[in-house]
Amino acid sequence: MTQKQKARAYDAIKLVEKFNQSHKVGDTVMWRSINREGISYQPYITSSEAFVFQNEAVVCFEGKSGNCSIEHGFLLTNLRK
After folding, report:
1. Do residues 64 and 29 make contact, with C-beta atoms less than 8 angstroms apart?
2. Backbone angles phi and psi of 23, in degrees to 5
3. Helix or strand holding residue 14 (H, E)
4. 79 — pLDDT class (breaks 50, 70, 90)
5. 8 Å CB contact between 31 and 68
6. Which residues, 6 or more positions from 79, have their beta carbon under 8 angstroms from its beta carbon?
7. CA distance 71 to 8
8. Coil, helix or strand for 78?
9. Sign of the dihedral through C-alpha 69, 5, 51, 80
10. How far apart are CA 2 and CA 22, in angstroms?
11. What's the chain's Rg over C-alpha atoms?
């Protein structure tokens, strides 16, 4: 693992910790997909705790297959404070 990958993994772990402290399974969060440009933030209900997947902080939502990034720009709440 390169230093850049290690730093990214560390940042993802910290973001996951902050998300899980702020949100529980079943909470509604405002999230948007970058794959659907022009779409504003929409409410989604968490169906899992956040976790690290391929050095990225992600969470699962009800009604969405797979996991969704909670990195900067995806969530309306800023967890990087």
Report:
1. no
2. -130, 140
3. helix 3-22
4. low
5. yes
6. 15, 18, 19, 22, 70
7. 11
8. coil
9. negative
10. 30
11. 12
Tokens 């309306």 label which residue? 76
Q: Is the Cα dihedral 42, 48, 52, 54 positive or negative?
A: negative
Residue position matching structure tokens 């956040």: 50
Phi, psi of 44 (to 5 degrees): -135, 145
Q: Which two tokens stand for residue 21?
A: 């402290």
Altogether, the residues listed in the chain come to a count of: 81
Q: Which amino acid is at 6?
A: K
Q: What is the pTM of this model?
A: 0.84
Span 12-71, pLDDT tens digits: 999 999 999 999 999 999 998 876 666 788 899 999 999 999 999 999 999 998 999 998
Tokens encoding 3: 């230093």
